[in-house]
Request: fold
Amino acid sequence: MENASYTTLTRQVGLTRELQVIANNIANSATTGFRQEGLIFGEYVQRTEGGPSISMAQANIRNTSTLQGGLTQTGGQLDFAIEGKGFFLIETPSGERLTRAGSFSLSAVGDLVTPDGFRVLDAGGAPIFVPPDASDLAVSSDGTLSANGRPLSQLGLVQPTDPIDLIREDGVMFRTTSGTDPVLDGRVLQGFLESANVDPVSQIARMIEVQRAYEMGQSFLDAENERIRAALKTFIR
Reply:
């Protein structure tokens, strides 16, 4: 296979990955706290022996959008949304994770937990506990949780040290390998949930563009294949 075919194939692989990312964005456009993703294409230049180098496309880096999603008022005492930067800090069996989905509840022992039962952590990295006799729960804009006017804890708001170092583990949960830093300018709203920050219209438009680009690349590969077959038939006559 010639260099042109290799180059086109690497592009096709990248476009296939982007289609998968876009489809996942559209499928989760109604998921609370979901972050839209994009794919970053890069150029990889490979030197060839006795000939010119080959420029190939790589699409291995996913970029998570930090745009603010819409805020929906629920009135729930334990529904929280972040306005601005930051993520809630969650404890899982695999380590600490980040999320923007703030639909929480209390476990049987009084811990603040996610719908999957993972404990929500405070600013110091400790689980947030609500006493059984606590009532009139309120959260201030800095994340301080109080009951009857008495402070109990403070929701931990963090962000990855490296802005592009967010690795999605499921629809709304992320991990980071670069560590996290506290967020000081984030604002917590009680009784609200953040919608997905996906723009379905622009995602569908992008999907059409990617599909057309993929079809164009496939047409080139088909034509190149026919050219090679015709050349082989000529040589073996």
Q: What stands out?
A: The radius of gyration is 24 Å. The mean pLDDT is 86. The chain has two domains: 3-66+198-235, 71-194. DSSP finds two helices and 18 strands in the chain.
